[in-house]
Amino acid sequence: MASPEILVVGGGPAGSSAALWLARAGHDVTLVEAKEYPRDKTCGDGLTPRAILQLLDMGFDFDSPAFHRVTGLRSYAGDDLMIELEWPQHSKFPDWGGIIRRRDLDQQVAAIAGKEGVKVLQRTTATPVIEDGRVVAVDLASDGETERVTPRITVIADGSQNRFGREIGVTRRKDYPLGLAARGYWASPRSKDPFMESQLDLRDPTGATMPGYGWVFPLGDGTVNVGVGLLSTFTRWKDVNTSRMLDDYVATAPDHWELSEEPLGKPMGGKLIMSFSRGPLVGPNWIVVGDAAGAINPWNGEGISYAYETGRIAAGYVSQAIAADDPGLLHRYPQHLQDEFGLYYKMARIFVKAIGRPTIMRTLAHTGLRNRPLMEWTLKVMANLLDEDEKGIGERAYDALSGIVRALPVK
Ligand SMILES: Cc1cc2nc3c(=O)[nH]c(=O)nc-3n(C[C@H](O)[C@H](O)[C@H](O)COP(=O)(O)OP(=O)(O)OC[C@H]3O[C@@H](n4cnc5c(N)ncnc54)[C@H](O)[C@@H]3O)c2cc1C
Question: Cis ω on the peptide bond leading into residue 38 (within 30° of 0)?
């Protein structure tokens, strides 16, 4: 195989987005994915309006039967307190979200990239050959054979485990928060519900508080994705077994879902690497995107949109670096991320520290759910949907808060 100009390692949201935007800019791109599509990925399968915008821009077909459109979020605090919020009107983002199994979503986005000219190699695992921090070559192993290629630039989109990235020296900041989550699929006659649902006051069957949150995301096909998550800022988080926590949540989940007795397949868990806790994000001829960069939004655990967005932003710098024959231009990427997400993620780190005590989380949830305007604002903040172009009172309140946080010496 002739060496591509750009090699993208990993065919999840981050890799497919980077590859697609690079191909659209006219580059010669090869995307390698270790697994074969359709492949499962442990995820809640939830898409906010931010992710929908990225998918619209990429040309995703929302008429796909696998896609279930949702109009908002229903939140609970215990059994009685419940609020349903529509996604907000926004000058840029659509007012709808969606849920789609990752095996379908990732296959379809990789297929769009393929149609745009990306060479997609499945069942192919990439390993770097490194000299002085430079990726001088990449070994591509497939069906027992290995081929060596020498791309000019490598985009690292290898997900939360980040094996390829770790070999080059990408590491995670241990002082930043981390999430743990588990999800499974259950049958439900309510799978066409137009709302995503979250439980902010998790209790085990004895009524004892659990440190975390739960969700039920309807898939529209007779099944729902049910999951639980917790943050490393929660006290006792190291003692928590997320599989047991998921069992407990399912046992107490609202009756209206009429969940099947047994899950459909074995529930799975995974890590949420957030707040750009990984680095360095660029080297002499490589750049890191998505979970590999720790791009997940700590406010809500959303990672798909940030994988698409970082893939797209990185593609812009790779394209410029190639056009100018100056790989040094890649080094502008971390500053771009800092300018776009730095302060917002810093505020999130303060928030997740505060809710680390289940009692504080419970008090906030019970107070918030009694106050619709406050919850509408919270949804906008947590889903990163404040409107920069049409500032209302909520945007101005956020600006005032962020002005204070900017000056705080928080890690
Ligand atoms: C339980 C759970 C629930 C979640 N729920 C949500 C949610 O509802 N909404 C949301 O937005 N986010 C959610 N997330 C986060 C979301 O799943 C991730 O942020 C997202 O998948 C990141 O995309 P990515 O492309 O960076 O990585 P991945 O999706 O992990 O893709 C990486 C790809 O790289 C491939 N790969 C790895 N190494 C190599 C190699 N050496 N060579 C070739 N290929 C390789 C892998 O096979 C994989 O396909 C959840 C995460 C968890 C764990």
Answer: yes
> Tens of pLDDT along 313-371?
999 999 999 999 999 999 999 999 999 999 999 999 988 888 887 788 888 888 888 88
Protein residue whose Cα sits closest to atom 50 of ligand 1: 43
Determine the CATH number of domain 178-271. Answer: 3.30.9.10
Of 395, 405, 406, the residue nearest 89 (C-alpha): 395
Question: Can you point out the beta strands (E) in 157-267?
Answer: 171-172, 178-187, 195-199, 213-218, 223-231
Q: Alpha helix (H) ranges present in 238-282?
A: 242-252
The phi, psi pair for 71, rounded to 5°, reads -100, -10
**Cis before residue 280, ω within 30 degrees of 0?**
yes
Structure tokens at 319: 């394209």
- pTM of the shown model: 0.96
Ligand 1-lining residues (CB < 6 angstroms)? 9-15, 32-35, 41-46, 125-126, 157-160, 163-164, 181-183, 227, 270, 272, 290-292, 296, 301-305, 307
What is the spatial distance between Cα 218 and Cα 181, in angstroms, rounded to a whole number?
18
Confidence of residue 2 (pLDDT cuts 50, 70, 90): confident
Tell me, in angstroms, the distance from the centre of ligand 1 to residue 41's CA: 6
Q: Determine contact, residues 297/303, Cβ cutoff 8 Å.
A: yes
In the chain, what are the domain boundaries? 6-70+97-174+273-344, 178-271
Least confident range of 285-289, 290-294, 316-320, 353-357: 353-357
Which superfamily is assigned to 6-70+97-174+273-344 in CATH? FAD/NAD(P)-binding domain (3.50.50.60)
How close is the Cα of 289 to the center of ligand 1, in Å? 11
Distance between Cα 1 and ligand 1 center (Å) = 27
